């Protein structure tokens, strides 16, 4: 499949799902393509402000967790270990926020982004859609869709009469808008867009996809191995409960996208659902006794809960290849499950939640 247009609008939701990581390999590959003129990144002042707000909120939450860690690990504050000491280094929260926003601004600048204001948007048309429940105001009058409505109409007003534009989003309301506005081509994430872009090299892309199919079992085994070796922690309301055992039960099917390809290597990325079993041990509050004097529940034993849960992970596969007898041959493969360095969060409560409506 060839690209139908070079115009690309990325919804705020797509950046949030990518973890607001503007230095990820996928976003970097998109940026490089924009620098080469292969894509024309279009944004609006609304989406830019939305993303800036999301970044500010994420940094504020992160800094709050840093302070929480410092309070709980105060005994380490005077450590001579440079790594531990770094966790207690002073910083200016405002400067951290500024640096984070600068990373996003660099992305905007490097992509040579066309930033649209709302001067060409007909506000009456937006409200007409709202009161008539027309896309993107689906399933009732959802006021939180106003930013999307203004942004989409701003893009529409910017395009030439027969121009098209990719809309990168998984939002159902944007999907509905694209279904009735054929000049807008919905694509669920940047990986899918880059896969289309890189598929122009039919011979290599077909060799890569074929290799991935042939080595699917090995890739899944490596994903399972890395997750089993990762740290898991319990973040439920069950106080002082820890993960004592975790094990991957199944790695589901996935759809790989070619993110980057050159003469010697390529980067493939995908998201995949993983089913796992987790065992958590903690204080037996259920059989504890409430102490009026201290106002605390006193426990005398510990108990264990086991659950099966699922989560979605992002995976990158780096392939190195060379030309042998006129054909491309894969000579090396590296599989990396992203995001495991910070641990895997689970939420297992002491008592299983039972929905009273069931």
Structure description:
37% of the residues lie in helices and 28% in strands. It has 358 residues and is an alpha/beta fold. The strands form four sheets. A five-stranded parallel beta sheet has the order 3-2-1-4-5. Strands 7, 8, 9, 12 and 13 form a five-stranded antiparallel beta sheet that branches. It is globular. The two termini are 46 Å apart.
Layout of strands and helices, then pairs:
Layout: E1 7-10, H1 12-17, H2 25-35, E2 40-44, H3 45-72, H4 82-86, H5 93-110, E3 114-116, H6 123-131, H7 146-158, E4 165-168, H8 172-180, E5 184-187, H9 190-198, H10 202-214, H11 216-228, E6 232-234, E7 242-251, E8 257-261, E9 265-283, E10 289-291, E11 296-298, E12 302-324, E13 327-337, E14 344-346
Parallel strand pairs: 1-2, 1-4, 2-3, 4-5, 6-14
Antiparallel strand pairs: 7-9, 8-9, 9-12, 10-11, 12-13
Helix pairs in contact: 3-5
Structural class: alpha/beta
Beta-strand percent range: 25-35%
CATH topology of the largest domain: Rossmann fold
How far apart the termini lie comes to 46 Å
- Mean pLDDT, as a whole number? 88
Instruction: Flag low-confidence runs.
Output: none
**Going across the major beta sheet, what is the strand order?**
3-2-1-4-5
Number of contiguous helices: 11
* Count of folded domains: 2
Sketch the topology as an H/E string, one letter per element.
EHHEHHHEHHEHEHHHEEEEEEEEE
Identify the CATH homologous superfamily of the largest domain.
5'-nuclease
